[in-house]
Amino acid sequence: MATASQLFSAFLLLLCFTVSESGYKKKEDSLGDKVSQLTEWNNKKSVIRLTGDKFRELVKTPPKNYSVIVMLTALQAKRQCSVCKQANEEYIIVANSWRYSQQFSNKLFFTMVDYDEGPEVFQSLKINTAPVFMHFPAKGKAKKGDTMDIHRVGFSAENVAKWVQERTDIQIRVFRPPNYSGTLALALLFSLIGGLLYLKRNNLEFLYNKTCWGIGALAVIFAMTSGQMWNHIRGPPLMHRNPQSGQMHYIHGSSQGQFIMETYIVMLLNTAVVVGFIIMNEAHNMKGDSRKKRILALVGLGCVAIFFSLLLSVFRSKYQGYPYSFLFK
Amino acid sequence: MGNPGGWKSLLTFFILALAWLAGFSSRLFAVIRFESIIHEFDPWFNYRATHHMVTHGFYNFLNWFDDRAWYPLGRIVGGTVYPGLMVTSGTIHAILNTLNIPIHIRDICVFLAPVFSGLTSLAVYFFTKEIWSAGAGLFAACFIAIVPGYISRSVAGSYDNEGIAIFALMFTYFLWIKAVKTGQIFWGICTALSYFYMVSAWGGYVFIINLIPLHVFVLLLMGRYSKRIFTAYTSFFIVGLILSMQIPFVGFQPIRTSEHMAAAGVFALLNAYSALKYVQSFVTKAEFRYIFIMSVGIAASVVFLTVVGLTWAGYIAPWSGRFYSLWDTGYAKIHIPIIASVSEHQPTTWVSFFFDLHILICAFPVGVWYCIKYVNDERVFVVLYAIFASYFAGVMVRLMLTLTPIVCVLAAIAFSKTMEIYLKDDSPKTNHRTSEKDQENKNERLYDKVGKAKKISDNKPKDDDTLGINIKSVIVIAMLMMLMLFAVHCTWVTSSAYSSPSIVLATYGHGGRNILDDFREAYFWLRHNTHDKARIMSWWDYGYQIAGMGNKTTLVDNNTWNNSHIALVGKAMSSNESAAYAIMRELDVNYVLVIFGGVIGYSGDDINKFLWMVRIAEGEHPKDIRESDYFTPQGEFRVDAAGSQTLLNCLMYKLSYYRFGQLQLDARTPPGFDRTRGVEIGNKNYELTHLEEAYTSEHWLVRIFRVKDLTNRQEILKPKKPIKKSYKKKPKKVSCEYRKCH
């Protein structure tokens, strides 16, 4: 009984509202039109493409009871915006997660404006970069936080969803379509190795070849000691171009950072020192006359000394105030 | 020269003693420059715990419930600490005291790590001797004694687990190699005992319990199974497992967590393999093939299903966060900000490899090369160790420590090989040479008789004068110069980078050295001027120091076991004053301590750490704290007038910069100029309502504020209305406040 009476009172309340709002009939109509149009589009595609006119009509003009998230972007190939593509992919993931979630309603729409389809939107919002994520609330004007700060938080789908939740109080659980490429590559690799072993099953000598194993082990060690893991985690640029002089910098100026190019150089230097060392030691066991041995030994020593001092000077240039050097500065 | 063997051992002894001495003395920079003092953060807790153990006895220490930490939760210290360090220094203290040598426990704690570095170089010597030769062992002992990668964790005063754990690590590995070589149960049990010491000392024991099974597994794959390995591993595994479970902090982890499952799996595999070998001896080939395939299939599926089933049922815990972040390198950054916030958990640049290891980093791959070329059972272990340790060191800076010993060993092999070739006197007369050759032949016998190893012994004794004496001496001198450069580099690095106690700062100006002793000044003020049970709120970095030096109760400390508690403190620091006051009342805070470096330009202060507080607070209270509020609209973090208002009014800002606006440090800069961030602060003249300044140290580095009590009654703002009316209202308000404070 209690629930029934509650329901009834709720119904009454609703009735009151409809009655009292009937005065705004005209506005209501345009609002209803807008919502139904947006919903219809949304049923077809999770991200609604807007042109300049549509943007003004659906997003900017007041009677609204829905929030709109707009991505302002430039996806045309001629604009050469590679970031926009990545941002677009992430954005579509968020929009799809919303589109197929349990709480999906017509309170929130994901839209986008391409620069080539509505340049006037960019002008009216005084935006000259892309991509930009903006939120247009249902009521009132856009506030400070309504433009997402992608420089600081990035534009991964999780962060976009978090930002949307901050602005609209609607929680979206991001559902990424699972990425099988890694597993696939691994399976391919294993089948390749397996296939190779099967083909060479009559001659598995190479498995006992110590040089192969030695080179493999050294490759892992060189990769690690030259900071490839740091590159993998931090993702530094390949090298740096000085905007004023146009000069290329291969070596990062501080000891806290490094460029990818720099790590390759260091890896080469390390390898050269090691090769020099081995030549120097093997010179003794070489077959041949003693002249050849002597030259080999000296070549080995030269490799070790020169490449090590090169490494030392690279280090010196990065580590301010380091006092020592070898052979050359 | 009557007895070359005698000379040899005397020389060995002498070199090892010198290595010990050099290692010990190069770790004393901090003691000589400052004083005999405990460094940094964690050592202060270790020292406090040791002190507690020495004064109250071992069993009271194991049962110690520390009510001075994590107020109001407390911390069960005995069950959450690796007691090896405390027991070691406690034992030394007890021995010295029975010998009537009175020494304060603090001095033992300060000098423990340098003394143990000598033991480490001994362990490394024996390890390398087993792997390669005695000459390489001497090289390795000298390298490990002075290499910065190890000194960084073992200078005098850095009283931490790592200081003794590296010794335990290398000693365990030495015993393991010995066990593999001899196949005696005695050495297996010794390995287990040393492993037990390692478990009691450092969480890094997981490295041992994964590396040794990996070694056994790879040996099986290579077809190098033998009775020796079976004996060594089974005896080590069983005894080691039982012993490791005796440490309260470890408890049942060895049979319940994924980190330890590899060891158990290899144990099962090894037993199955040896059973098969046994069966093989009395069945025909065809039968054996059938049995083999059947049993391998069954065993593999049974093991796999059990592990999966137990994990699913919750008996085996999945990988813990810290270990997991070693494999999936992006994991910690997203899921565990408190791990990501620690600078030790960052990946390693090549610069820090070179900084910590210098020439060894270039030379050690040569050692790996020769270990693979002349492979035998124990060299497989070294190669595996080198590869895995370099991977881990690449992922996390702090794991450089586990890489360092093996780098020393392998670089020593490289150098000793070169020296062996080029120092050898080729002139064919002395009997000195025959002894050396004997030794070499002995070595050769240990090599496998496959591949190149034979060739060397074949063409060695042929032509005598292969390389001229000139070339030999050039090469030897060049090598020696590089080694000297290495020694100089090590000393420079130790002196400039790793020898500051970080609780006493020193600045060098034209007036000589200037000591800034603000931390101790403030902590001793706390110790002597506040109530015994006073509760101090600070960021977690300073928890151990406040407890150790100030002997006061803290809310959070460096044992970051409770993230939500830390987040609560972070929330208080990043809220405005009245919201923070509510939190502080709930947490019974009496004093708030902040570190402020703006006066002297100290960059490790709380304002620079502030974003981590916000981030950690946001993780637990996303409704109240938002990181974006602390940035300007352009996304900058700035404390001047253009900074965000939320930042300029949060508690941390107000406490750090309280009265700072009136302080003019320099005629050229405006008042309130922050030297650390190089800007004039944005919010200058304000008063605190709920807190008052209690103490500020000489250079303003530490500032302590007292949290005021609730006012007796609500303050009545200018009574405009007739007195009668306000009279009616007053009791209501007072009662409300009354309820609040209960």
TrEMBL record, chain A:
Q: What does this protein do?
A: Subunit of the oligosaccharyl transferase (OST) complex that catalyzes the initial transfer of a defined glycan (Glc(3)Man(9)GlcNAc(2) in eukaryotes) from the lipid carrier dolichol-pyrophosphate to an asparagine residue within an Asn-X-Ser/Thr consensus motif in nascent polypeptide chains, the first step in protein N-glycosylation. N-glycosylation occurs cotranslationally and the complex associates with the Sec61 complex at the channel-forming translocon complex that mediates protein translocation across the endoplasmic reticulum (ER). All subunits are required for a maximal enzyme activity.
Q: Which organism is it from?
A: Lottia gigantea
Topological type in the membrane: Multi-pass membrane protein
Q: Show the GO cellular component annotation of the record.
A: oligosaccharyltransferase complex
Where found in the cell?
A: Endoplasmic reticulum membrane
- Give the residue spans that cross the bilayer: 180-199, 211-230, 264-283, 295-315
What is the name listed in the Swiss-Prot or TrEMBL entry for this protein? Tumor suppressor candidate 3
Instruction: Please give the family membership noted in the entry.
Output: Belongs to the OST3/OST6 family.
The Gene Ontology biological process annotation of the record reads: magnesium ion transport; protein N-linked glycosylation via asparagine
**Signal sequence segment:** 1-22
Where the protein is mainly located, per its record?
A: endoplasmic reticulum
| Origin: domain of life | Eukaryota
Looking at the keywords, is Metal-binding present? no
The record's annotation in Pfam families points to: OST3_OST6 (PF04756)
Write out the pathway annotation from the protein's UniProt entry. Protein modification
Q: Which UniProt keywords apply?
A: Disulfide bond, Endoplasmic reticulum, Magnesium, Membrane, Signal, Transmembrane, Transmembrane helix, Transport
What InterPro entries does the entry give?
OligosaccharylTrfase_OST3/OST6, Thioredoxin-like_sf
UniProtKB/TrEMBL annotation, chain B:
- Which keywords does this chain's UniProt record carry? Endoplasmic reticulum, Glycoprotein, Glycosyltransferase, Magnesium, Manganese, Membrane, Metal-binding, Transferase, Transmembrane, Transmembrane helix
Q: Which cofactor does it need?
A: Mg(2+); Mn(2+)
GO cellular component entries: oligosaccharyltransferase complex
Query: Does Cytoplasm appear among the keywords?
Result: no
Enzymatic class: transferase
The UniProt record lists the Oligosaccharyl transferase STT3 N-terminal domain at 11-411
Name any one GO molecular function: metal ion binding
Q: What is this protein called?
A: dolichyl-diphosphooligosaccharide--protein glycotransferase
Naturally occurring in which organism (per UniProt): Lottia gigantea (Giant owl limpet)
